[in-house]
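Your task
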Amino acid sequence: MKYYLKCCNCGCVIDNFSAWFGQRQVCSNCGGRHVEAVYFADYPMLKDLLKGHPVSFWHYFDFLPLDDKANIMSFGEGAVGLEEWYFLNSYAAENYGINCRVYAYRNDMNGGTGTLKDVAASLIASVLKENGVSRYCMSSTGNSATANARYLSKAGIRFTNYTPATTNQVTIDEIRSYGQEVVISKGDYAQAKQEASEFSGKNDVLISIGNIDPLRVEAKRTIVFEFLRQLGRLPDVYMQAVAGGTGPIALDKGFRELEERLPEITGMPKIQKLPRMLLVQQDKCDPMVQAWEKAQKDGFPENFEKEYPVIENPLTSVFILSAGNPGMYPLVAKIVKKSNGDFIRVKEDELVDFARIVYQQKNVRIGPAATVCFAGFYQALKDNKIKDGDIVVLNIGESGKRYPDFLSQ
């Protein structure tokens, strides 16, 4: 027995993913859908795994919920180089007198489709293959669907994605190029989710349960392993653009899993803290930022995380971040609060200018969602949210290859 799943609501134990799928991904005791994997792994051996240059996140096989390596579906994703972007170090020092070190987590270099979603898609395809699943569906604005289309195709699993009407044609064409199905919703992301759920129930097709899906979380929480491998410690600040929030949820899970073991693993006697999470949204679809600002103004009253606005059919060009109904805000907000972090708003109309800076400085073409994160760093400096001595990681979560209109600007 390598692992088991534990319900985050009532603590009920589910033997494995085979049992979880058999329960329609619902806790048989309380009806909850949020579960986490607990491993019987030899954690001291992680210290040895944090050496060398792995070819993918499957380097951490003993800490992932798959039993047989023969079922691994991989394109060399996940072992992403953390690049120190010295021009940002200099900018912070020269303009704000802040001496910090800024690293870009370059997911555009992943071996799959060029986003952080490749890590989750690899684990999803591998676990579904191991458990004999033949069909899978989800609702996605683009990156998750594209990654899953490629990996599930490799696994021989039929995939159907429900996508909002705003999704660009390049993304739709790429998903279909893998022989997978795209259903274009008549409405926004919320409508696409509803249609996917109805399709799943009517046709008895396994569905991704969104940002708390344990396969997505377990894969992405290996970002903590990569921080330890490449930095020798955790960063002080972690930044990413956010629509749903799997990244923060996964980072928190990975930290909790290793928290008491970090001194032994890193050789650092001091217990490290959860990185301050600075999560960024563009001003044309920023429900989490709006909710956070209100809670902040009210002094974070009890149950503050349960109050948030819903933006119907957000008029944003960054369709990857077009989740106007932030259903994960109650969970994500509590994690951000615990980390002493914050939410940041950037101006969508300025994104092209920031993307141009990256291209001029690094000859790298990033997509609009990655640019939201990058722009957030400049805003964080303005708002005094970066401190002297901080190590900052920016999750540059996508390449610009599927956004020709954005790149042309």
